[in-house]
Amino acid sequence: xxxxxxxxxxxxxxxxxxxxxxxxxxxxxxxxxxxxxxxxxxxxxxxxxxxxxxxxxxxxxxxxxxxxxxxxxxxxxxxxxxxxxxxxxxxxxxxxxxxxxxxxxxxxxxxxxxxxxxxxxxxxxxxxxxxxxxxxxxxxxxxxxxxxxxxxxxxx
Amino acid sequence: xxxxxxxxxxxxxxxxxxxxxxxxxxxxxxxxxxxxxxxxxxxxxxxxxxxxxxxxxxxxxxxxxxxxxxxxxxxxxxxxxxxxxxxxxxxxxxxxxxxxxxxxxxxxxxxxxxxxxxxxxxxxxxxxxxxxxxxxxxxxxxxxxxxxxxxxxxxxxxxxxxxxxxxxxxxxxxxxxxxxxxxxxxxxxxxxxxxxxxxxxxxxxxxxxxxxxxxxxxxxxxxxxxxxxxxxxxxxxxxxxxxxxxxxxxxxx
Lengths: 156, 253
Known about the structure:
Chain B: It comes from Crassaminicella indica. The complex is a heterodimer of chains A (about 160) and B (about 250). Chain A is of the alpha/beta class.
């Protein structure tokens, strides 16, 4: 599985992304930027790019990371790996992704303890309705609130 | 150290459209957006892999029609001053482009599930990534040549043709007097000293065909000048908040 119609983030979504709006408008947060990372085919490459993402977060001295995934299933392999690399560096993080009853993580690790599920269909499944299971403002507010709690607890 | 340092300013001016119609010339007149019927043939001929293009105007609420799989929803925006992430951008509100695609053999241009069907059943309106029920939709439907292996080139050809179509409006938007805009939004890349430093990571698709993203095109939400995340080896690339909100990503998913 990859990106189904109901979870895919269209170009319009990126143009007015609620995650960016919620985080950048919070007066208590210094938003560093948006790191875009792809999902390569092979496992070696998946680990390579995931680790690079985590090193970026570390060298930027990020106090926290919100990681969202466009796609699930196979993409969750990349997702879990990147989360693990960030977690190992003691950087608090919160994930946003599609789970529902279908998107059970193919691999997990101890750092995947705070994940916001963006499923919105009643059946809990990836549907063929464009935009149905998209990240919305409430998901982002939830994620940022969780991250604030984690940053308070885990650092300093 | 406390306080805020402003690094950069981006101004997005929107021009509201409340009517879309066909005509003899690509134009934005007041709140009217006009589509040139003659241009369609030119767009068809611009790509070898394209067999046919059909452009349709979908009025607000008029969703009882069959559409091929929805490949993307694209805003119509143009850089007026500066490059992506700074300066001035003009954008249209009230109208968005919906790109759909199929090949001559009837194969939908979608992976991992396609969204063809009656529009009202296939689109959840009013999300960040979809039009609202008050918006016009310019439906750009591409039929690609049949009998070809399903490769990146097919959806890419459809996206390119659609980008050329939007390019005609970009030329007009660049000439628009900013004082006529319906809304003006100012955005700042800034440092909030002493506050918790947060990084947003967006994991995007990068595996081929409909599973690609173009980063930092020349024009907001465009194709030309953008680099495919696949071709960049999927390695992380940093985008400033203003670059991101100025259309730094063109989703091919």
